[in-house]
Fold each of these.
Amino acid sequence: RQRQMCIRDRSYSQISGHKMNNLDFFGILSFVVPCLNPLFWSTFSTRWSIKVHLVLYVFDVQNLETGYYILARDHRALKSIKESLNLDTEELLWEKPANLPDEFPLYLLKKGDSKEVSLKSKNVSCHQVIAETCSFTIGMFTALKDELESNHPSCYR
């Protein structure tokens, strides 16, 4: 089911017409975390560490707090991600959702109401209406300048 959503569909709401199941949500995210999907990720070069992490705007997933999350795709980068994000004057929560295994690197940064989160989701998604009406959207977080200065642009993943 997750594979179908990732490959064929842009929006879970188009499949089901209701809130996304949190197990489907976690299943989708597990594809992009090397420690949760080692067989797939072992096919890639280990020369470079994971530099791109995901910021999630979650507003319509069952049993998951509405708000802003980060998925640290490499647990070794968590400290530097926290340092980078905590430069903001706002205090971030860094709470793990209930019932997730310890190795699942998803953290709630800030709670929000559905309307606020969906509107911000739409704003960072080039004002696409689908970003305001789906279950969640994804942005990327990386130290891109440092990576591009120290390696060739094709080296970050």
Amino acid sequence: INAEYMGDQNFSETKFTLKWSKEQFLQYLLCDHPKGYTQQQVDGVWEELQERLRTVLSCARTRLGKTADVFELFGADFILTEDLHVWLTELQLGPGLAHMGDPVKGRLIPAMLRESLDIALEVLDRRRKGRSLAQPLDAVDRYIVLVNECAACLN
């Protein structure tokens, strides 16, 4: 993609069309991609993506610590091969939250921050009331809980 668009004088506008929402990406894989992937193949992409993140978090858990009153937001970059293999290329502490002029991030970031705050407040409320963190959180809507191994040890 870079080789195709980097020479384009309108690259600054073009680069935003290369960034898709999850829904747009699924639409492309299922309906518009020349290979015409199946729903099962596309579901496998999300399972593989989540597994890559679980692996990294598992490997880094001693460095991440188990502080009860801390909430962290990470960003991750992936590359997807033609045969739908997922490569995790980067994990960032504190992902870029700027979203002005970027329609995909403009829809994603505000909703993500609202849900992040709701989750953090629910965890704080449960801890104050002595309620278990091992049970599913009511505030989780679009997030996917990948690792909950610390929930039991934080009570």
Amino acid sequence: LRRFQQAIPSLDPDLVCPALLDCLEDGNPWIIRAKALCVMETCITIGEKYQIDGSNKYADFFFTCRGEVEPLATHPRAAISQPAQRVLALLGIDEGSTTGGVITDRATTVAAVDRAATTAPAVAAAAAAAAT
């Protein structure tokens, strides 16, 4: 995986991502699906460090195809559900969104998550002050 991580910035996401999504299809052994999700997580993480034109091409691709990952977040096997949840979190999709929320724009979702992370400490401080 280390060599693959080093190669990710030079690979074409339009070739890598469809191959990974194919591994998630029903009928594949659970271990293949689990490994594909872990590789997806790695691609998104490395893609954030090496953005092209200010965009993470891996995250953008997987966000568009999130419908293939969302059902796996509730898979009974933890080896599948946990990496699926991490992939969705990296895409800015929380578990509540996977049950019918409509999300059409990854940039809007990421911006909302960033705003929530920025305002959460202030809200927590205000709540703590009001409680005392």
